[in-house]
Amino acid sequence: MATPAAYDVGAVPRTGVVPVPVPVPPGSVCESRSQYAATIDLPSEAVLSELWAGQRFPEDALVTIDGSPVRVLHPGLRGRGAGPDFRHARVAVGGGVIHIGDVELHVRATDFRAHGHHQDARYDGVVLHVVFEDDIGADTLLSSGHRVPVVELAPWARRRTEDIGTWLERSVRWREPCHDAIERLGPQQVATRLERLGDDRFAQRVAYVRAEVTRVGRAQALCQALLESVSLGGDRAFAANLAEAIPWSRVLTLESSLQVEALLLGTAGLLSSQQQEAARHSHEIELERAWRQLGAIQSVSSSFVALRPSNHPARRLAGLAQLLTGHRDLMQERVGEKNGLDGPVRDLVREWSVPANDYWRWNVGPARPARRPLGALIGRSRAIELLINAVLPWFAACSNLGRSPDGVAQAHDVYAALPVPARYGRLAFLEDNFRQEGRRLRLTARRQQGLLALYKRECTDGGCGRCLLS
Q: Are residues 363 and 269 in the same domain?
């Protein structure tokens, strides 16, 4: 990991004026634009979003409904998908304590409740509600029971309709300090620094897996790392409970992938009978039979709603069962006797992918038929993520413990050669900042891991102005 000195913690954020106005990007707010049609009197939320992103309005425009001035230290990062419009913002209300959290934007204050945010825990991190019109006259109530201050822009929005157009044409008053990194440092230097951060992130993962190998053994450490990386609907608590409940020593003795699948699904409480449904498909009947033959094994309760079918835990666990069965020899051999990293990277990615058979192509899970055919259980993107987060760190950790520097180096070489698994929405603003002549910096998995490290270490923790690229 880089030392604190490498991040120039004493650097002052450079938040000067940028002379190029930024156009309103389509889809820049989290909710459907159709919900926010502007009236004759009030502009749209997209306009408000652009004003907030560039902090283009006069400083005295930001006042809460009780008259307290609001000072913005960091407007936050644009939200992607469901959730607040801007995240990890830093604002001071009334000249007092600095609040770190999310900012939600609406045309009217009542929109917060109208859109169901008052019952959505994803909005409990909101510290400021910015609206064009306050049609309530009170602070905004969150699902947690807390209230957050409201800033109303109606005095400016109504009296200065023409001014809003002028504000949008102004140079932005705030940009991330890394927005000109390519211009200042050059693309190669930016890439090198991202790779350094990516290597730090990989080293941390290797250290974690190495500790697990020492604690539970090589085979179980890989099993658990794979389970952590298959993304069980994003429910970390469920994944942790399941990892603890699965009898891994039993998994490693099973010869049939059907038995492994039954054990994983049964322990997760996802079989048909565990959902009070009858097993109708032959595959579901075989899973039930295999689960009964395995004997009494405690199940972990699960509750999943509103998940994309392809990301349902049942499909992830079915894919994991295939991987554990297909790579059994790898877990039983000593690193060095059977390396498993030889050959082209594309072949390695293919080895850790799992296509869907006839049953899983047409079913989300037991007793849950799909409305349309589904793709692979473990596709190319997920396979690359498994390599980054589980397989390669495990190889490096085992090689390190086995005093095999060549094995460690090979794991790092494969890591450096991996392509990007997928574009991550939360990193889009960083990728946009690292443009040259309108083209994004070429990313590899290693560089993308550097972006993730930058995002988590600095961008979401008030680190603008002190990171490697500021």
A: yes
Question: Longest C-alpha distance within the chain, in Å?
Answer: 77
Q: Could you tell me the residue range of the domain that residue 136 belongs to?
A: 21-174
Question: Helix, strand, or coil here: 275?
Answer: helix
- Please check whether residue 225 lies inside any domain of the structure: no
User: How far out from the chain centre does Cα 130 lie?
Assistant: 25
Burial of 217 (0-12, 13-18, 19+ CB in 10 A): middle
The burial class, CB within 10 Å (0-12 / 13-18 / 19+), for 317 is buried
pLDDT in tens, 271-288: 999 989 999 999 999 999
232 touches 239 (CB < 8 A): yes
3-state SS class at 184: helix
Q: What is the pLDDT of residues 9-32, one digit of tens each?
A: 233 233 333 333 333 343 334 443
Mark whether 207 and 151 lie in a shared domain. no
CA distance 64 to 440: 39
What is the rounded CA–CA span in Å between residue 415 and residue 384? 10
